[in-house]
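Re: beginner question about structure tokens

> Can someone show what the tokenized structure looks like for a real chain? I only ever see the sequence side.

Sure, here's an example I had lying around. Input first:
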Amino acid sequence: MNKFVSRLLVAGLLLTSSMAYADNIKIAVASNFLATLTALSKDFTNKTGIPVEISSGATGMLYAQIQKGAPYDMFFAADAKRPKLLEKEGLIASNSRFTYVTGKLVSWAPRSSNVSADLASLNPKDGNLHFIAIANPKTAPYGAAAVAVLKHYGVYDKLQNAGKIAIGGNIGKTFQYAASGNAQIGLVAKSYVSNPEKPVGGTFVEIPGNLYPKLTQQAVVLKGKDSDAVKKFLAYFKSDAAKKQIQAYGYGLGD
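And the corresponding structure tokens:
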């Protein structure tokens, strides 16, 4: 092989590499949907060759990052409030906002817990109950939902006064509080106890949806980020195969 052909091949490889890098998709996702989105992204990348880079955290935190110019292409929130605010602020691509799932809240007691996951029978004075973990209600929609549920059962103030409420920065940290045994009950997204790739022990009770604000989770494409790669990802995300996987993680379907 002569030097000219070799140089052409190297140049071609470099060009292909840079094009692939340009096609990377950067997604900000609420913690509750991280495992689901990770599984979907792996399948998408296997089928298309387009890498997906994921950053997760509390919806309020990610929203603040986007306002400050964080370089995300898409934002999968745990509510509809922040996507609507981003739309109002002119920070999303036109007509890109949609409901991708409806979240579900559960009360989960890990194997190590001696406390029932049934909140209807919860006794704040139970000596076996040291902590009940919830996400931060100021930044995490699942945290606000948890507060509403505890108030419905008339135990929120009692638990708060007894110092038995542990606050997680996001729903993932809330799950870890209970999973580690530091909290006897965790009010978490159903996706954490329904993860088909990482089954968890213990028991959980799905909380009736009429006891907390509907967890309508919306996604947006950020302004100037509606690339061909993003369009391909959205087409995949809305496919029947992806919808089945989303339901397997315990979510209700969106639009």
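Each token stands for a local structural state, so reading them left to right follows the chain. The first strand starts at residue 25 and ends at 30.
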